[in-house]
Each structure stands twice: as C-alpha cells, then as structure tokens.
Design goal:
189 residues, 6 helices, 7 strands, single chain, alpha/beta, Aminopeptidase
Length: 189
C-alpha cells in the first residue's frame, strides 16, 4: 500500500527541511507541484514526500487523511529531523501571487516567515501572507506539524500558475532552492 500512495526522496537526508506536495496526483492535481518538489529535493538534498493519491479520493492535506500512510511517514520524518526544522508544503494558487500560509501565525515563527518572504521578494515576486489560503483548517499539514515553540516551522506555499509551467519550473526551482539555502544558513549556526 504505502509506497504507491506516496513517493519519498532523500528520506535519510540530514538537512532540516521537509518538502511536501500533497496534491500532486491527477485528477484535480496542483499541476507540476510533484515534479517541482522532486526536482527541489534532488537539487538541495532536502527530504521530499509527494502524495500519489488524488484529492478526489482523499485529500492528504485534511484531517481525514491523518491515518493515511503519507501522513504517518511524514510524522516519522518530522520526529527524525534536527531542529529548527522547516516544512515547506507546496500547493497551487489560481491567482498570480505567491501566498504563504501559517494559519494566521500559528505554524511558523515570524522571523522565519519574514526570512522566507524576503527571499521570495528578492526575485521580484508578489508575496502575501495568510490572505486567503492560510492552511488554517484543522488537520492541514501545517496545522498538524507546525510547532514553532518546538522548532518546527511549517509554511504552506501557494504558487501561481505562472510559476508552475514547464518553462518556468527552472526559475521556480532556483527561487525555492534559495529559500531552503537561506533557512539553513540562518538557522544552523
């Protein structure tokens, strides 16, 4: 069961970053989020877990998925990682902006959030925080795992269609790799 329902990359990575892509499977996928997460893991060495079940059958970013193998494996990965830890939960946004969701500040320290926001803005991206897609529903990945007081910072990143096309994936990969590099260099002293 488990491995067909999710794909994992760099499970033994010592990098304190986990990238999730719960809505990568068609039908009704957040297009190219799985491919982007996989490329990001290969480029940075971060651990990646990609959902391989469509949200039409089970939304891996909801409470009802809590006992699913994807979420169980993610729980295990979080326990194994060194703190501070960043969980970057990749999704697709319909509007032409990047939205960072922290469930209204519950799932990431403001300093970490601002560092990530600044890294994105350095690429001239329009970035908003907790505007519409906050990840605040009970049972979302960021609500389930983000505990800034325990050193676990979970941010839902909603990428617009313009950053999720085959032509733009290289640029988006560079942007997100710089976010990960910034996080690691500023927190692992």
């Amino acid at each position: 069961m488990g491995l067909r329902e999710y794909k994992i990359i760099n499970s033994k990575s010592r990098l304190p970053v986990i990238i999730t892509a719960p809505h990568a499977q068609a039908p009704n996928a957040d297009k190219y989020t799985g491919a982007l997460a996989e490329m990001l893991g290969k480029q940075t060495g971060a651990t990646v877990i990609i959902g391989k079940i469509s949200r039409l059958y089970l939304d891996l970013n909801r409470q009802e998925a809590n006992k699913h193998p994807f979420r169980k494996r993610l729980r295990k990965l979080v326990l194994e990682k060194k703190r501070p830890l960043l969980i970057l939960d990749i999704h697709g946004e319909k509007d032409d902006k990047v939205e960072l969701g922290t469930a209204n500040g519950l799932t990431a320290d403001p300093q970490i959030l601002n560092m990530i926001k600044d890294a994105l803005k350095a690429y001239n991206l329009y970035v908003v925080v907790d505007e519409h897609l906050k990840g605040s529903h009970a049972g979302t990945i960021i609500r389930s795992f983000g505990r800034p007081k325990d050193g676990i910072h979970a941010i839902q990143i909603e990428l617009p269609p313009s950053l999720r096309t085959p032509k733009s994936l290289g640029f988006t990969l560079s942007v997100l790799a710089s976010v990960i590099k910034n996080f690691c260099s500023n927190t692992q002293r």
